[in-house]
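## retry 2 of 3
previous attempt timed out at serialization; input unchanged, resubmitting
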Amino acid sequence: MSQTEFREYFIDGVLDLLWRQWSAMGLSGSGAGEYKRILDPEALLVFSLEAARYDPRLFDEIIDWLIKNGGVMDIQRLRGIIKSRNPGTQALLGAVAAILMKEAKSYRRKWQSLSRCGRNKGIDKKEILFKTRDNKDYPVIGGEDDIFSEYALSRPVFSASGKSKKANPKKPSNIRFMLRSLLGTGSRAECILYLMTHDWGHPSRVADAIGLSVRGTQDALIDLAGSGLVLEGRPGKRKKEYRLSQGKWWKFLLDIDIEETRPPEWINWIAMYESLSGVLSLLNNISETDSDYIRSSKMRQSMDTIVKRLMESEMELPPFPGPNIPPRKYEKEFKEFISKILEQS
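## retry succeeded, writing output
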């Protein structure tokens, strides 16, 4: 498989993953069945803004989904996730937030702060929003969207399809939405979900995994422990950790007996999407004309960061390419590794 072919294969694999995940949350599209892992709408949105530029229909259906479901999104988490992303991704989120302020007026105040991301940065030249699989500009036919133009992005006028549905909180993969309905959007719902899928949780580790501040996470855990339903303290440990009765919570929320039925798998999607974003960025920076040595060198340089984030995702990983593989073989090993990651996602 050539470098160009692998890049297009990777983009197709990522888009297939995004369609399946968004469809499981109520987006209009194929693959709307069950998803085996717990979904993360905020991390999914940020990554989708980058990757869905290669699929205009998906990009616009995501906005349509947000018009219907924007009220259950956690703006604080979005702020935390987006602050580490590049200015281009921040501008994309700002433009989408501005669209929501127009199309879903009941969410206007909720999305107002995010609409400031990337606006009026003094950028003279607009960038074409959508891209073809071979990274060429998608033609803009008809008039341009005024709101996206404010963020130096050129695209056709957005029109909502109105096909998206409300996210079904009774789907195991959508348990975040059920917890938010029960406990409110914010750190308490995220902390409970983490403890339902991990034996113990230390505030700093929980905060890293859920994308919120350590202070806010710690305060939420202390408050939850005050209910008596979350327990604190771990035998033999000096640092304070927290846990809960996982079986009782799964039974209460979704009527799942974890002794008989395996609950949906937790994945740190913030870390997983960052690794996939890193792969996409890497593939966009490799030319077909680069030598074997140059291609493998670029892959090796990016691999440490990619693997580090993959390991933080808590997904079971295939063996990754070692440091002593010669250049000609390293590219093949790298492509096989990334292909397996896509297959498992």
